[in-house]
Amino acid sequence: METTNTVQSSPAWGTLLGKIGFNPAGILCVFLLMALPFIPPFNQEYLLRWLIYAAFIATLSVGFDFTSGYINIVNFGYAAVAGYGGYTSALLAVNLNISPWIGIFIGGANAAVLGLIIGMISLRLRGIFAACLSWFFGLALMGLATKLVWLTRGPLGLRTPRMFETESNIPFYYLIIVLLILTYVICKMVVNSKMGLAFKAIGQNMDAARTSGINPVFYRVFNFTLSCALAGILGGFYGHYYGILTPEVMHTTKTVEVLAVAYIGGRGSLWGGAVVAFPFIFLMEIIRSTLSHLPGLNLVIYALMLILVMIYYPGGFSHFFDVHIRQSKNKILRILTGNA
Amino acid sequence: AGKSIAVGVLGPFTGPSAQTGEEFKASVQMAMEAIDYTVGDYKIDVVWVDSQSDPAKAAGAYAEAVEGKGIQAGVLNWHSSVAISVMDVAAQYKVPHMFGFGASEVVNQKWQADPEKYSYWGGKGWPVPAKLEKNYVEALNNAVKAGIWTPKKKIAAIYGEDTDWGRSAGGSYKKALEASGWEIFAEEYFPATQTDFYPLLSKFKKAGVSAVMGTSTSPAALTSFVKQFSEVGLKSVLVASGLGWIGDWYKMTGPASDYVLDSIPQLTTPEAQQWAKDVKAKVGFNPSPSAGGLSYDGIRMFIKILNRTYEKYSVLDKESIHKVMVEEVNTGQLTYGKKDGAIIMNEYKYTPETMPDMVVSSDAYFFPILQYKAGKGSIIFPDVWKVKEFEPKK
Amino acid sequence: MIVLETQNLTKQFGGLTAVNAVSMTINQGDIVGLIGPNGAGKTTFVNAISGLNPPTSGKVTFFGEDTTGLTPEQMCKKGLSRTFQIPSPFPKMTAIESVMTASIFGNAPGVVKDPVQHSREMLDFVEFPMAEDVLSEQLNTVQLKRLDLARALASHPKLLFMDEMASGLSEGELSDIMRILDKISRKGISILMIEHIMQLIMAVCNRLLCIQFGTKIAEGPTQEVANDPRVTKAYLGSAD
Amino acid sequence: MSDNLKDKIAWMKSAKGITILGSIFLALFATINSGPYVLVNTIITGGMLALVSTGLTLMLGVLNIAMFAHGEFFMIGSLSAYYVFTPISNYTAMHPDSFLVTWGPMVAIFTSMVVGAIAGIIAEFLVFRPLRKRAAENWVMNSFLLTVGLSVLLVNLHQLIFGADFKGIVRYWGGMPFSFADVFISRDRVISFCLSAFIVFLFWAFMTYTRTGRAIRAVSQDATGAQIVGINIETIVLMTISLSCALAGVAGGSLLFMYPSYPTMGLEPLYMAWFVVILSGLGNILGAVAGAFMVALLKVVTVEYVGAGWDFVVPSILIMLILIFKPSGIFGSEVRGVLDT
Amino acid sequence: MLLEIKELDAGYGYLQILRKVSLNVDKGEYVCIVGPNGAGKSTTMKTIAGLISPMAGSITFNGEEITGLPAYQITQKGIAFVSEEMNLFVNMSVQENLLMGAYIIRDKNVQKERLEFVFDLFPRLAERKTQLAGTMSGGERKMLAIGRGMMSDPTLMLVDEPSFGLAPQLTASVFESLEVLRKTGVTIMLVEQNVTTTLSITDRGYVLENGKVGLEGKSSDLLNDAYVKKVFLGV
Ligand SMILES: Nc1ncnc2c1ncn2[C@@H]1O[C@H](COP(=O)(O)OP(=O)(O)OP(=O)(O)O)[C@@H](O)[C@H]1O
Ligand SMILES: Nc1ncnc2c1ncn2[C@@H]1O[C@H](COP(=O)(O)OP(=O)(O)OP(=O)(O)O)[C@@H](O)[C@H]1O
Ligand SMILES: CC(C)C[C@H](N)C(=O)O
Ligand SMILES: [Mg+2]
Ligand SMILES: [Mg+2]
């Protein structure tokens, strides 16, 4: 899906698509995703469920990478922010009867405010400290969701109306795919603009960025706000799809899932995680279901994969793609990746 | 030959509640081995559906079990949150599912919002906690009335793990206590992973509470609570509801559990005791009457339903099983009880009024209250089953 | 015209007074050399003005405007750029990208129409010896300093601080730096340079400021200061 | 004299001073307000936290590994203590006069330390060393993710091999609880507190006064510099990892009486250790110890005045507040390291 | 021959920098390497110090083959390296840094002697004993790095650009202290940019260009060499 690394080399094919971060291979992926529910075996509802979950994680990983891959801060409370957006939307639906279609955007806006706050309070912090601050923020949020029983019903679980009153998963699937594409396009357009350069600059060297005239406060806070807003909307989707929210959705282990996908996909690419999420989550599910008599084995394999990727290919899939496919001598591949 | 039916067993086989998953597994395997995985001329394929304690993953796994493995029916489940999301999946595929333990009110609310649709989510394996937990208060009040126990002050403290289960149980203690003139000093819920209760217990001690009542399904939390309760020197009555649901609890609490009140179905019948021995021999740990025992009864009741379906329709598939569920189980015709070999409850019986819960009463589904001494519990409530009087701690 | 003026600028670290009430001025077109022994507080002084480490007390006036305590990005937008003594690159950016940060976000956001072209010009201007798409992390100290200079110039400064630009250069290479300095100066940019290489200082600076233990000991025309006995004693030592 | 006074006032105004004085004040207030048990509980809990956090501090401060699997080494420690202690306690039940009544628990705890160290060494050889050999760049993030993988791996291996049931013991040392000022504390708590105090002290002394300890700190600050002065980094790294894991292991072992062993038990101690380490600043052992007591105090006071379960929310909010004002932690150094870039 | 380098190839990853570099240093000699930026001077030093393992060639020290030994063993054999980047322990005090320099010396008394020796050489370090190295000024750090190198009482000191960033007065005193050191019998190999000064204080020199040894000879001869004059002194 991705095109250019540096701002100066503009893609040779269609500038409009290039601007929103697509090359022919990316378009192919999108069409594939669109057609998937009609291609056997993916026309089976259970595979659609996996696809939906994969797309959910993929979308989160795009938003996550928007922060971690560019301004270099790992938002370890990302799942909590998503959950916060989800709760907002769910509470509006439950208490004020506001349609989930409006609710998820209010949830997104509310999560954006949260992002603003996290961005502001983590301003003076760098690296692992900023990550920990967002982590603790997430833990505190999850704690609040647990303890404010009068509001959230805490661990008793908040039942939420579903977005489509249908048994079929297809509408949900298209909805999440649209969210995935939108998220990707929005993030890509931002990082392809001069803002992207500012993000990278403050992510890599705060002092030098500041002396170049970049106001870190604005860009950092903006970055957090946008990525949290996206997470908030996704949290709303989650709640209105599965029909229940418990504080568990805000748990660190959910962030870890997103983070693993984003890193295996490749940091700072935005598209890496989105692409990798599908095969990765499928593989995990297949292992889980074929080896169900050995519970936990799928997670052992998951862990081993993560470890092996980190040791032997820390650049992740996007790096692999750039080195071995985009720059390959194969002409067709080059055209596909917009490097002809 | 060659006819078979796939049955899904939903449980937390990995993740924080994996021990429950293991108990489920052992129970199902034993019950199935006993009938050689056969009902009529059907071979039963058991499909383990791992909820991973996560509603999203559980829903995906369940759908996959239906479509990929072709399960025609499902049994068991542990979490309420998982129940909420899997209920929709079961309804979507019209797969009947029985005996889920997701107990709390959300499940009932969702079920009652559309009984038609959720008729696929059959009777639960555990009623809403309020129906059982109020008995402690009654037992204590009886002891006060009988003059066996004179609490210094009628002040009680409530504790519990911060889960749907802990909170709804705590809520029912509170209601019952307040109704009988007790003052509630505090209502405290802690994460299921917490094991340090000194601060909390010190606080209770200082307030001079006469009764401390609460529950947890987490062995680590509850055994620590019981131990530390005796360590800090609290002299009040302790209700540790669910201590006995942990198979190996006495190995962890030791004498600290003396005088503790618990409500637990006892393994009274010889079958039950034999079952416990068999499980221990098979998996190496003592099963709990709640997770292990109830799930054993659950799966056996399910087998009974399968037999009945086969008898009635000669086919085993989701439609026929669902029909039997709706026509016979939910109406109270088909029940499962001691005469069928139930090891925990007298009778599992559902009626249209109680659905999705079962009938809760001392001759049906009931948890007697008992008090421990040296690792052995004696029933002190209800009066009909009583073997011993309540004995306050000295 | 007075470009920069400091009045009693002081910076303390805990108990240590690194810069002690330094007052000085820079006029339009000046190339001022800031000299002083190691640890005298030169870098600290520059940091205090450029906002990286705001002063404890005292006042900074930039083109008549009180800029005390402004942040580095604000100072940059007002027209003050700087390079770092210990090179401070964007490790994962290419050379041209690093320069582009300043051409896009620097003092003249609207002026630069084509940042890529502009950055390329800047790299040429400082005679950057490597390809423009080399990653900063692959450069050595001297190359990094050159890149840093290009970055500082790309933001269209009116005043440029250079912290030990020439360290690590051989005598032959000094002439390159002198040439570049001359070009910068001819663009109308005033310069304050911290330098230990007297040869360079004597050749290019029209005025000198010498500090020791954070305190100003001399300020004035180059020859005058260089011959000041206090400066000789404190700084130039027996070498000269 | 007046200089001395000035210094003192400056110290009181610093972040260190404010938090330490604030903590002391809070502790005194709560003790007077509620009773001595607050203080006693704080001290005992703090001692245990100190043990878990010093190991993490070491990993973070020396090797720049943001360890996410620390809790799993805690779990390994408690598991091995369980398997050693169970037969011992069966034996002592039959032979109440055996020396093992007193020394058996010590054997179990010591084993947990050794097993923790060995597990650490294995992790270094199988996981960290290959990563270090392959790519030094982006070490902080890559190694962090590696530990995430390690954590998932160990949790699930535990389940596969040992099962998911809770493996706990009744107690280590029998006998009446100790009591002072109407506060009762079990022997296990007192002894494990003393043990952890002792271990932390030894560890601190080791890091501060021994040649190897200094070498460990040197490696943490500049690996090339350390090589230049003649330090064999491979050995030091190996040693540091095993030391850190041994500390986690012995914490798990000595707290077995409180935390029965099961696969996912590591998360709670992990959170707590991270709270402490971030609050107090990286790589500072004494700071971590002080931080441990502060976090313990926060927990105890929160339970006392706000309620159970809030002891997660309130401390994390307070720690965030402190971080906002003191970004590198209370005792953290102002000099920036690899971890904050 | 104290140090003998034969046909050394070295570099970073696949990137080769040094090509068949051969040099040798006699006991007690004061040798320098000069050359333009990026010529590979620092790379040569790092390879000798064991921080980079050579691709080909051999290094012998005191008649003993040390090619490819890890850095810490090379230090133990008596080679000290003062790197361009200094590699100080930023969170340790000045004194601790110096003591780390004497890591391979186990005798506390000898450590103390060395410490005093260094403090005599650099009184500024003595003044700032307890300051953290990370908060020292650029020049102060350089002094500390040199001081730390001297702590191990080396036979051979490799010094990479000691005057980098130093005030003239200090540059002079650093060179003076190297002179003092040399009088105590230490062999020194110096890399410097300041060609005139360097060639006037050392005995012998090598000119490195593009990873190859271009010229070698007595320092005084090199100083008068037409090529050197043209390329390095801009004359
Ligand atoms: N963050 C800090 N904390 C404490 N002391 C500091 C700090 N930063 C600098 N110093 C001290 O302030 C003094 C001045 O340092 P500065 O870096 O300004 O010197 P300088 O003149 O630039 O020296 P050089 O020429 O060596 O670069 C030094 O003694 C240094 O140790
Ligand atoms: N870590 C590294 N990775 C890749 N290339 C490097 C690395 N360090 C140095 N180089 C390259 O190796 C070449 C030689 O560098 P070296 O530092 O040895 O030169 P030098 O002669 O010391 O120059 P200077 O006078 O600038 O210190 C340079 O082109 C440099 O870009
Ligand atoms: C006691 C248990 C059966 C409660 C169950 N964990 C639930 O989610 O409702
Ligand atoms: Mg300086
Ligand atoms: Mg060099």
UniProtKB/TrEMBL annotation, chain A:
Pfam families on file: BPD_transp_2
GO molecular function: branched-chain amino acid transmembrane transporter activity
Transmembrane segments: 20-39, 51-78, 98-121, 128-150, 170-191, 217-238, 258-284, 296-313
InterPro entries: ABC_transp_permease, LivM-like
Topological type in the membrane: Multi-pass membrane protein
Compartment annotation: Cell membrane
GO cellular component: plasma membrane
Protein name: Branched-chain amino acid transport system permease protein
Keywords (A to Z) from UniProt: Cell membrane, Membrane, Transmembrane, Transmembrane helix
From TrEMBL, chain C:
Gene3D superfamilies assigned to the protein according to its UniProt record, in alphabetical order: P-loop containing nucleotide triphosphate hydrolases
GO annotations of cellular component type: plasma membrane
Molecular-function GO terms, alphabetical: ATP binding; ATP hydrolysis activity; L-isoleucine transmembrane transporter activity; L-phenylalanine transmembrane transporter activity; L-valine transmembrane transporter activity
Domain of life: Bacteria
Signal peptide bounds: none
Entry-linked InterPro entries: AAA+_ATPase, ABC_AA/LPS_Transport, ABC_transporter-like_ATP-bd, BCA_ABC_TP_C, P-loop_NTPase
UniProt-recorded name of the protein: Amino acid/amide ABC transporter ATP-binding protein 1, HAAT family
GO biological process: D-alanine transmembrane transport; L-alanine transport; L-isoleucine import across plasma membrane; L-valine import across plasma membrane
Domain called ABC transporter: residue spans: 4-238
Alphabetized Pfam families for the sequence: ABC_tran, BCA_ABC_TP_C
Keywords: ATP-binding, Nucleotide-binding, Transport
TrEMBL record, chain D:
Keywords: Amino-acid transport, Cell membrane, Membrane, Transmembrane, Transmembrane helix, Transport
Main location: membrane
GO molecular function, one term: transmembrane transporter activity
NADP recorded as keyword: no
Transmembrane segments: 44-66, 73-94, 106-127, 139-162, 190-207, 236-259, 271-298, 305-325
One of the Pfam families matching this protein, by short name: BPD_transp_2
Superkingdom of the organism of origin: Bacteria
InterPro entries hit by this protein: ABC_transp_permease (IPR001851), BCAA_transport_permease (IPR052157)
Membrane association type: Multi-pass membrane protein
Keyword Transmembrane helix: yes
GO biological process, one term: amino acid transport
Record localization: Cell membrane
Cellular component annotations (GO), alphabetically ordered: plasma membrane
Stated family: Belongs to the binding-protein-dependent transport system permease family. LivHM subfamily.
Stated name of the protein: Amino acid/amide ABC transporter membrane protein 1, HAAT family
Lineage, top ranks: Bacteria, Pseudomonadati, Thermodesulfobacteriota, Desulfobacteria, Desulfobacterales
TrEMBL record, chain E:
Residue ranges occupied by any ABC transporter domain in the UniProt entry: 3-235
Record's keyword terms, sorted: Amino-acid transport, ATP-binding, Nucleotide-binding, Transport
Top-level division of the source organism's lineage: Bacteria
Transmembrane spans: none
SMART domains xrefs: AAA
GO molecular function, one term: ATP binding
Keyword Metal-binding annotated: no
GO BP annotations listed: L-amino acid transport
Family in the record: Belongs to the ABC transporter superfamily.
Family annotation (Pfam families): ABC_tran (PF00005)
Protein name: Amino acid/amide ABC transporter ATP-binding protein 2, HAAT family
Alphabetized InterPro entries for the sequence: AAA+_ATPase, ABC_transporter-like_ATP-bd, ABC_transporter-like_CS, BCAA_Transport_ATP-bd_LivF, P-loop_NTPase
UniProt keyword Transport, yes or no: yes
